[in-house]
Amino acid sequence: MWRLFWRGCGVFAAQQGLPRAQKMSFIRVEENSDFSLQNLPYGVFSTKEKPRHRIGVAIGDQVLDLSAIKHLFSGPVLSKHQNVFDQPALNDFMGLGHDAWKEARMVLQKLLSASEPTLRDNAELRKRALVPQASAIMHLPAKIGDYTDFYSSREHATNIGIMFRGKENALMPNWLHLPVGYHGRASSVVVSGTPIRRPVGQMRPDDAKPPVFGACQLLDIELEMAFFVGPGNKFGEPISISKAHEHIFGTVLMNDWSARDIQKWEYVPLGPFLGKSFGTTISPWVVTMEALKPFVLPNPVQVPKPLPYLCDDEPYAFDIHLFASIKGEGMSNPATICKSNFKYMYWTMKQQLTHHSINGCNLRPGDLLASGTISGPDPENFGSMLEMSWKGTKVIDLGNGHSRKFLQDGDEVIITGHCQGNGYRVGFGQCSGKVLPAISVP
Description:
With 442 residues, this protein is of the alpha+beta class. The protein is built from eleven helices and 26 strands.
């Protein structure tokens, strides 16, 4: 039945001219699973029985332990670098570059296909190499040396600008000319499932009075995506836009939590600081750019035309459906508060990477570059509660008598995302975190 199902998907895809499903895996993959044979995202996991961190690939409801099958990567590139799959993080593999990533994907898709006996028919190897996802403890996929957050959604930037400066000055003069960004705090990037404590700090809720110290009252989400850098660049040598794709390994979901009241008081003149650095959550599975290729879209029309070093005719926008939900205490099910899409980004990942390095800044394998809040044209696409509640003037309805303007203690925020093919998905799993009460400070 499953073979007939996949054959039918292929015929339909060919007729519709849409991304076509490939051969099925010998591991059962449900149609709505994020982790199809077309995906094969990388992550770092451990188990209670084997606490050592190791690199895995998600397929269906299983994790394939690459340290157990490293000897099967025998191609021209990876045969010399099998040790990268013995590492406790993905940095070394990311640093190998484009050819190694493509070779690894070809090997993995072959090993996991229904027609390949190497793993399928070796019971002892399967027992060592396959781990149920339910038993896997997920960790950060890389050692993140540096983290940069951009501000690349025009709709989001416009909404925020209208709230604080009015329609006439919604976008700052530089916004349409370069990808605006700031240097974030890598040490407080955490993996999905890690609780986030409500931050404390200085705020000035009444502009006519001095600042006060206390727990953040306007805790917010930011629906984002981020990408990991592969090979870096030498200090002083920029990455050109034509080569930028060779330095982008893959993408994750992100919630860049924001303390709006702390941020408002502190950000002038140097930008975000304590209002952002208390916690940033990412999903554990890194979806590669190869897996996203079938879902590429034309780049957004940019007016005025960027300066030549940022001009790029190759499509590098992606149709990734994104969702944010809140499950508060006393709620039986999460309530979806946002339905957005990565295609709404104004500045592409290639433009962000190129601009970041144009001054000679050296990027390194495992560096994390984030999109900024991803908002679309309609209210249901707004990627922050600041926008959804329009600076606290509107109520966000969660259903069954529950509502919010900003986050409450005990709220769990769940971000998900996927690309939809014909009969398969390329998804990211979950990016989630629960809000803990602020710590008591004397």
